[in-house]
Amino acid sequence: MAGNTDLHAAARAKKDEFYTQLSDIELELRNYKPFFRDKIVFCNCDDPYESNFFKYFALNFNALKLKKLIATCYNGSPVSGNELMLDFGDEIKEPQKTAYKVEITEVKDENGDGAINLSDVQYLLKNDKNVITILKGNGDFRSDECVELLKQSDIVVTNPPFSLFREYVAQLDFYNKDFIIMGNTNTLVCKEVFRMFMKDRIRTGYTHFNTGMFFYVPDSFEKYHHMENGKKMARVSTSCWYTNLPVKKHMEELVLYKHYTPEEYPKYDNYDAIEVKTYTDIPCDYYGVMGVPITFLDKYNPTQFEIIWQASGNTYANAPKDLLQALGFNPNIKYGGGLGTPVLNGKATYTRVLIRRRTQSIPYTQEESQMSMAAEPSEDNK
Ligand SMILES: C[S@@+](CC[C@H](N)C(=O)[O-])C[C@H]1O[C@@H](n2cnc3c(N)ncnc32)[C@H](O)[C@@H]1O
User: Fold this and answer.
1) Radius of gyration of the chain, Cα coordinates, nearest whole angstrom
2) Atom of ligand 1 nearest to the CA of 17
3) Three-class SS state of 104
């Protein structure tokens, strides 16, 4: 009989098997086209036979002017070697339950039809012996050989396993890699991710914040939303994109039109900060600390606002004492939600991001403004 640990591991692995639709990838990635030129893209949680990330980059290899595409496949995937999401036809068999990498440096129009399509990629995988290599280990993104590939690469793009998201993003941050990855809005409040927001080392992407997305799931899943082309689809209401590349909305100033009154913006019982129920209500004439809902992070422009801290039960234990003191935190006031949750008129609120207006907009650094200029599509990039 399976022990509790086995059951938990199986439940975790199941949560990780949500496969991204090509249309969702296209919708987000079309915003970053100039950033891919001459770059090595690494999809490190992507079995090329299942992943639409691999498919997207293989098919757009020339259009994006990529230098190299690397994809590694993890052999712990319950679907690896079992269910092919991408139809490469019968002639080419996916290596069975082995971890392997695919490295592509050139995609030619092999069938001469004037376009790069799946049959050209299929031809490439089948005929070029240098393209597919069996890995020594299991293809875990944390393994030495995958970390070596990470070091060589410029941009990491994937939907990583949800259960390992914090570790995943911390690794990208540690190796200082550009990334465009899928995640879950629930992870915004994790201390690792939130600290990256505070340092402006991560931001939300262009599409799908708080709208929900559909993913392919393995045939073995009993719970799913609907069938599409014979595949089970499940909805995740909290999925979103995260990146450290420039995103236009995070460079635009929020237009603030409301004026501060103590009646409309009461102070918390336990913090020297005012409650702002929604980011659209941020008063234009208040320069003290304000508590706003977590969704503010999707609009956060670090030149307009400064993130001071996350007021929640989770973060209290890690809060620097002098910061709590500066925030006028009163540890004697607690009402559900754990010590650290903002309390308003004796009631706990939801987790809040504590922010402050910058008195003067800080211009983006030279590097960032160059990147933002690069983000404007030039004629040959359209
Ligand atoms: C959310 S799925 C997404 C798959 C693919 N990137 C996509 O978007 O369609 C995450 C994938 O990561 C794989 N995975 C799980 N643990 C992993 C690990 N430690 N290292 C690399 N990949 C892992 C899972 O088996 C699964 O295929």
Assistant:
1) 23
2) 2
3) strand
H or E stretch covering 359: none
Atom of ligand 1 lying closest to residue 78 CA = 25
Of 45, 135, 217, 239, the residue with max ligand 1 atoms within 8 A of its CB, to mutate for a pocket test, comes to 45
Half-sphere exposure of 304 (CA within 13 A, CB side): 18
DSSP conformational letter for 267: B
Alpha carbons 150 and 71: distance in angstroms, whole number = 10
236-285 per-position pLDDT tens digit: 999 999 999 999 999 999 999 999 999 999 999 999 999 999 999 999 99
**Token output for 226:** 């609907």
How many Cβ atoms are within 10 Å of 299's Cβ, its own excluded? 19
The pTM (predicted TM-score) of the whole model is 0.90
pLDDT digits (tens, 9 = 90+) for 85-128: 555 555 556 666 689 999 999 999 888 888 888 888 888 888 88
- Which candidate, 130, 186, 166, places its Cα nearest to that of 350? 186
Query: Ligand 1: which residues within 6 Å by Cβ?
Result: 16-20, 45-46, 51-53, 74, 76-77, 139-141, 158-161, 164
Which helix (DSSP H) or strand (DSSP E) does residue 152 occupy? helix 144-152
